[in-house]
Amino acid sequence: MNIKNVLVAQSGGPTSAINASLAGVLKATIDSVEFDRCYGAINGILGVMSENYLDLTDKAAKDPDFIKLLTHTPAMYLGSCRFKLPEYKDDDSSYSFIFSQFKKLNIGAFFYIGGNDSMDTVLKLSNYAREIGSDIKIIGVPKTIDNDLCHTDHTPGFGSAAKYIAGSILEIAHDTFIYAVKSVTIVEIMGRDAGWLTAAAALARNSYSSAPHLIYLPEVAFDKERFLTDVRNELAKRDNVIVAVSEGIRDKDGNYITSSKAMADTFGHQQLSGAGKALEFIVKENIGVKVRSVEINVLQRCAAHLASRTDLDESFAQGKKAVELAGEGQTGCMVVLNRLSNDPYQVEYSYAQIKDIANEAKSVPAEWINESGNDVKKELIEYLRPLIQGEVEQYYEDGLPKYLDISHLNRC
């Protein structure tokens, strides 16, 4: 019997939990009877096209702590890319080469860990495999702090990012409230089309702080005059107002509220910057109080020191589930989470067809946003809160967090 190997790659933006999914794939491969070695492609699908691989099974064999450290290392151990495969009916040269690499490495299953654009790659490779009659299993493992993948309750990486955002808002509140002067602090949070991350700012509220006092998501058309009215109303009640805003807020005509012109990436997504700064200028010009904007930016993606235990555990489990599904013969699918209950919090692991997921986006439900469009409802809080639970043990060396060596990504 010719036991096959597996190949895994990572794509898109980094998170605190994507390496936990990679660790899950590796551990499940080592423990499986269906597969032998686990190879990792450097820099996503481009690593396959450039024949740039790591033998992860060998690394785990040489270092007994490798999987443990991999689980706790933020960002992407295998590196990433943002590369859009052409349609194979237009040009199948890339596909032909990729599948020749699968044959060369004796690959029986390919796992792609990533978000929406990565699932586009899974869909295209799955369709090509079916077209040529290949029995290689192609499976997506979800990852995105944006939490916008369809057919899954939530995505790996989101819970840790949500925890960091809530913690940051709480710390900003402590910083801001010390001054008995009228002020507005605007916190810009990632979220181009979906406001899940910005909504997580509401988790910062506790018995002594109601910050953030206003929350604006891209699901609701932004209105400048309504915003000014909201801020003035909050200033009438308190000295310090904290506003959480998604980078992707736009007006009723669909125009982004930014302080700089947006550019597009290879998938056609506009790269946004300056929504918080734009609102800072609006407040400064129309209200005249002390105002500042804070752009959390990339800090919310890989803050492993404030990762969610729930997030890492679920990410690891979804990596393992992908290998299990491949062993059962599933392909052209993505691992998904189904929530069974909020209290006690319970989920189950399953899969959904990739054709129903790729190139789609899940928004915050309208019924979870208040009627004024400047806050979220308790149903959304109840959905979010379980995802940030639990603390992660951190390893230190010379006073700093200890992570895996990533010099193989070169230029480090």
TrEMBL record:
Cofactors named for this entry: Mg(2+)
Domain of life, per lineage: Bacteria
Site (Important for catalytic activity): K143
Enzyme class label: transferase
Residues bound to diphosphate: G13
Signal peptide segment: none
Site positions per UniProt: Important for catalytic activity and substrate specificity: D117
Alphabetical list of InterPro entries matching this protein: ATP_PFK, PFKA, Phosphofructokinase_dom, PKF_sf, PPi-PFK
Pfam families reported in the protein's UniProt record: PFK
Cellular component GO terms, alphabetical: cytoplasm
Sequence positions that bind Mg(2+): N116
Keyword set, alphabetical order: Cytoplasm, Glycolysis, Kinase, Magnesium, Metal-binding, Transferase
UniProt pathway: Carbohydrate degradation; glycolysis; D-glyceraldehyde 3-phosphate and glycerone phosphate from D-glucose: step 3/4
Oligomeric and partner information: Homodimer.
Protein name: Pyrophosphate--fructose 6-phosphate 1-phosphotransferase
Lineage, uppermost ranks: Bacteria, Bacillati, Bacillota, Clostridia, Lachnospirales
Gene for this chain: pfp
